Amino acid sequence: MTLRLNLGCGNHKLEGYLNVDSQPACKPDRVVNLESFPWPWEDNSVDEILMSHVLEHLGANTDTYLSIIKELYRVCRPDATITLIVPHPRSDNYLADPTHVRPITGMGLSMFDQSLNRQSIEAGASTTPLGLYLGVDFVMEKTSVKILEPWDSRINSGSMSEDDVRLAVQCFYNVIGDTTFTLRTVKPS
Prior knowledge:
By secondary structure, the chain is an alpha/beta fold. It has seven helices and seven strands, in the order ββββαβααααβααβ.
């Protein structure tokens, strides 16, 4: 049987998923506090996880955040996918919400990729090899962004090059609204 979790579903429930939230008022299929461990799913039991605008609310304490990452890994089957939709840390959507406790970035998530960890160690880089330290392994399969206006119109009209967009993202706020990361769980079969 396929198990797909919509963690932190709020009022956005999805058919075909077990909709999970910490707030009973949302009327989820299951009430679970994702900052309490262990989670109520068996090892290697989950095929897919969606966390839409959730992870940035969890793990203000580093140990709690890393425990969430370990739980994601524990419950996922080999090759399970995890889709994380988060506000870009340089957007008003991220900055305005007082319940956001941690920016989620591709660079931060790449620290849980053991292959990249080994490459960083060999190169003498200062990146923390969290995948190796924690015994987790997630590969970034895909990253996509939602470009905000007026930037999106400028890109679509051709008045901005890809290099211009990259520079704008580094220098300005409110270029990207949301980022979607798709991770694949790497485990021995």
